[in-house]
Every structure is written in structure tokens, then in C-alpha cells.
Amino acid sequence: MEQVIRGYFEACNTGDADAVAKFFAPGAVHYFPPDMYEGPFRGGDTIGAKWSWAVRTLGSHWTVDEIICDPDTDRAAIEWTHEKTKAGVVLRGDEWYHFDPDSGLITEIRAYYASPQAAGLDRLELAGYPYTERGYAASD
Questions:
Q1: DSSP string for 58-86
Q2: What is the reported pLDDT for 132?
Q3: Domains, the chain, ranges and CATH?
């Protein structure tokens, strides 16, 4: 798992969309906080294309700062830094990873950003994430 995550980040930093896509199982989803991008990135090709654009346009560069892997449950959590070098912006956050137990490829990433609570939002959740279907506590 750690090798897959580190390889994925290395591929992201090259800006090679096809290299990024190879780290994802079919149907993989990358979730983000609300109002980021156009919602979740769905599929390895989309994830690769989005990060390739970020490298070319924003000068994006990512690092893995901390990593914890749980092979018994096919999950991992990381802390990361994302530098947008052309804009002089630094983002930090955490991500949860789920892996396909057979292929070892990434099936899901849930990104959480270190930032203040967004004003005007009454639900601070990942956009498009199926909380109810996954059994999370919720009040409607």
C-alpha cells in the first residue's frame, strides 16, 4: 500500500496523466470537500487528467508527509502537502485510501483539507460521498 501511494504521488508530480491512472482500480473515486473542483473525480483517467492539468497550469507538486497503512483492512491514511508553485500557495491535509484487495490498486481517496470552516455551509462533508449508504451517522 505504501509503495502504491508513494508511486501515485511520484506519478502526479510528473504530470503524466496515464502514469497516474495506472494506480487506480476501475470505478475509483477521489472525493473532495464541497465546492472544490466539479465534485468528485471519477475514474483513473479523470484523476490523471486533473492532476496533469494542475502540474502544467499551477506548478503543483505534492509530498507525502506521514503515512499509516492497515493491510488487514486494505486501508491507509496519509498527511500531505500540495504546493501550487506558480501561485505561491501551500495546502495541507489528510487522505483516507481504500484499496482493491485483489489488485492492490486504489479504489477510493477521501481528501480532507486543513482550513477554517466554510461560512454559509450547514453541512461540512465531502461532496458526493455516500455517507448514508456507508452507515455514517447523519441528521437530515
A1: H-EEEEEEEEEEETTTTEEEEEEEEEETT
A2: 86
A3: 2-113 (3.10.450.50)
